[in-house]
Write a structure and sequence with these properties.
The protein has nine helices and 15 strands. With 263 residues, it is of the alpha+beta class. Strand 6 and strand 7 form a beta hairpin. The termini are far apart.
Length: 263
């Protein structure tokens, strides 16, 4: 894989390898601690330990880079920013459901250029660097290239979403339900899993009304390099809005339009 960010993608894999060992050692542990954060989301001791591990390794290998993490905020100031979600899908993790992952992204000069999503309980990993394609596999040397689907019409599309409650809070429940009624099939895979299925071509779109930067950053280069598109609900490309519409590309305009109108 030739890329200007080859060293960074290799480092992201090293980080993921280390974190996978830690998180798997805590998965389904009887002494796992769980707390509610101010936003009512769950955090465990594994979330915090995973982020601390990544930060410690980055401090040794990329000491000049900024680090932004879900649990411990931002540290440093740089045009290169590592954006970390130590466990995406903590609610699943805490309940013993294997659909969770560590998300590692690198932003450079305002663009997310590297993304790694590692789901060790599923024995799966996905990654991309801008200009070098998107891949899945057990390691860099044994990878399969990712491609989104070629579905062109909503009536033939499979769409994944997170929850009904979020759309109600966003004031878009009617538009959302109307969109669901137009597609061929809907599923609520949730979290990172929807977006990786999109990158693999297994589904055609994934939408969520309320997300944060650490939830989205690592997903963007993977979906983009697989041939898809990632925007917020207003159609602005990238992970910098507070929402996500990800699609194979041909469906994107129709989804945006449907969520802007209740016709």
């Amino acid at each position: 894989m030739a890329s200007a960010h080859q060293d960074d993608i290799r480092l992201a894999h090293v980080l993921a390898d280390s974190v996978d060992q830690l998180t798997m050692s805590r998965f389904k542990s009887e002494d796992l601690t769980r707390e509610r954060k101010d936003d009512n989301s769950i955090v465990t001791d594994a979330d915090r330990a995973a982020e601390e591990l990544i930060r410690a390794q980055l401090s040794r290998t990329r000491s000049r880079d900024q680090v932004i993490g879900e649990e411990f905020g931002s540290h440093g100031e740089s045009n290169r920013k590592w954006i970390i979600d130590p466990i995406d899908g903590t609610a699943n993790f805490a309940r013993g459901v294997p659909v969770w992952a560590t998300l590692i992204a690198l932003e450079e000069d305002g663009e997310v250029v590297v993304g790694v999503v590692s789901a060790p309980a599923l024995n799966r990993r996905w990654w991309a660097a801008v200009g070098a394609g998107a891949f899945t596999g057990p390691r860099l040397s044994a990878a399969q290239r990712l491609h989104v689907s070629s579905t062109e019409h909503l009536e033939q599309a499979v769409l994944s979403y997170g929850s009904l409650e979020g759309w109600a809070r966003a004031g878009k429940l009617r538009e959302f339900v109307n969109l669901l009624q137009r597609v061929e099939r809907t599923r609520g895979f949730g979290d990172f899993w929807s977006y990786m299925l999109l990158a693999e071509g297994g589904i055609d779109a994934a939408i969520e009304p309320s997300l944060k930067l650490h939830d989205m950053a690592a997903l963007v280069p993977i979906i983009g390099e697989a041939g898809g598109r990632f925007t917020d609900l207003d159609g602005t490309d990238g992970p910098y809005g507070a929402s996500a519409i990800a699609s194979n590309g041909p469906l994107h305009g129709a989804i945006l339009e449907a969520l802007q109108s209740s016709r």
